[in-house]
Write a structure and sequence with these properties.
The protein is of the alpha/beta class. The chain has 2 domains: 137 residues, Aspartate Aminotransferase, domain 1, CATH 3.90.1150.10; 246 residues, Type I PLP-dependent aspartate aminotransferase-like (Major domain) (Aspartate Aminotransferase, domain 2), CATH 3.40.640. The chain contains 14 helices and 12 strands. The strands form 3 sheets. A 7-stranded mixed beta sheet has the order 2-8-7-6-5-3-4, with helices on both faces. Helix 9 links the parallel strand 5 and strand 6. The longest helix has 19 residues. It is globular, with a radius of gyration of 21 Å.
Length: 395
């Protein structure tokens, strides 16, 4: 018998992916240059040359049997060591090789981390607006994802609502900073307050409460924005990282989990991840990609284009009358729609070949997401389309 759960999921496809597919078909009709597709968070800048050169060197110089063979279950030892060292240098931490587990991107990291710290029926809290794929990620573990309503004035954490949902069944809090879809970066004050609350509740409930810190946008932080390293502020932090955005490598599916060495059971958790891999068919990200990223741990792609695009859009859209909490990082913006029905608003934009993602699936109503990882010249050419959209409501 077919699994009804996955049959049901077939009718709940990603709005983002469906918009992107529509944009691809529409581009065949009127030309790519005429479709302003702000739907998908797919990096628009090339990988750094250091990565490309290292890939070429590996292919030319290294033993192909070893290069394309299975890596150890926890990842290649030298890569884990290099990742730990880079985190210590950059964030004044004390990681060792034993604290690092190599995974297939941040999605794989969350899948492992959530399974390690919960059993079916436990609760994980996350904060709106949130990445919609958190729902299937957590549902597949047997845990229950509960969403803390957003503070739409700042998109920092709504602590009153958080405290209302925080109970002894909560084993983890899943955060994403810099945030998809808002572009907001949680401040040091926000992270410290979250850490203080969780520390108090750990004592009250008699068990650890883990922060699962989803950090694929860690390197995309704009000028003078306060962007704390979460694990430096809370011992029970499992850092879930992906190189997809920092190195423009989403198709290579590579990242890691870093277990804060001050975390309770830190010595056990990474070994547990290896066993979890056996059950979910993860088993070793590609050896060659692990080795190549180890040589680019202090590099990024040219991420400056994203701040340039943000500045253009924020300036022009606020002039038009859009209400926007200014992003502090990522390549996303989350303006308030010009009507309450975000889907209807996005359909109006679609008529102008302006593809914007309605906010409903992010846990917030009445907003829309702009994913501005597109060429700057195209951002500039999209401004008249935004003006036409605004004129439909404000003229």
């Amino acid at each position: 018998m077919l699994n009804q759960n996955y049959i049901d999921m077939c009718g709940q496809k990603s709005v983002i992916r469906e918009l992107f597919a529509y944009g691809s078909e529409r581009a065949k009709e009127i030309g790519y240059e005429n479709v302003f597709d702000y739907s998908l968070g797919n990096p628009s800048v090339p990988v750094p040359e250091t990565f490309t050169r290292e890939m070429i060197r590996l292919l030319q110089d290294e033993n192909p049997v070893a290069l394309h063979g299975y890596s150890p279950s926890l990842g290649i030892d030298s890569v884990r060591e290099d990742v730990a060292t880079s985190l210590n240098i950059r964030f004044d931490m004390h990681y060792e090789k034993k604290d690092i587990f190599m995974v297939s991107g941040a999605a794989g990291a969350i899948a492992h981390a959530a399974r390690a710290v919960t059993v079916p029926g436990d609760e994980i809290l996350t904060f709106a607006p949130y990445f919609p794929e958190y729902q299937p990620y957590i549902a597949a573990t047997g845990a229950v994802l509960k969403v803390v309503p957003a503070d739409v004035s700042t998109f920092q954490i709504n602590f009153d609502a958080f405290l209302d949902l925080l109970n002894e069944k909560v084993m983890a809090v899943l955060i994403n900073t810099p945030n998809n879809p808002s572009g907001i970066v949680y401040s040091t004050g926000t992270i410290d307050k979250l850490a203080m609350i969780l520390t108090e509740k750990e004592k009250e409930f008699g068990h650890p409460i883990y922060i699962l810190s989803d950090e694929p946008y860690r390197e995309i932080v704009f000028h003078d924005v306060d962007a704390p390293f979460v694990a430096a502020h809370y011992n029970h932090t499992l850092t879930c990282y992906s190189f997809s955005k920092s190195l423009s490598l989403p198709g290579e599916r590579i990242g890691y989990i870093a277990v804060n060495p001050a975390c309770e059971d830190s010595a056990l958790l990474v070994d547990m991840f290896g066993q979890i891999s056996r059950g979910i068919g993860h088993n070793c990200p590609p050896s060659i990609i692990q080795l190549a990223v180890a040589k680019t741990l202090y590099d990024t792609a040219d991420l400056s284009v994203y701040e340039q695009n943000k500045n253009i859009l924020y300036t022009e859209l606020t002039k038009m009358g859009f209400d926007i909490v200014e992003p502090g990082g990522t390549f996303y913006m989350f303006p308030k729609a010009l009507e309450e029905d975000a889907v209807a608003f996005s359909n109006q934009a679609k008529e102008l070949d302006l593809l914007l993602v309605p906010s409903n699936s992010f846990g917030v109503t009445g907003h829309f997401r702009i994913s501005y990882c597109i060429p700057t010249e195209k951002v500039e050419r999209s401004i008249p389309a935004f003006q036409k959209l605004a004129d439909r409501y404000l003229a």
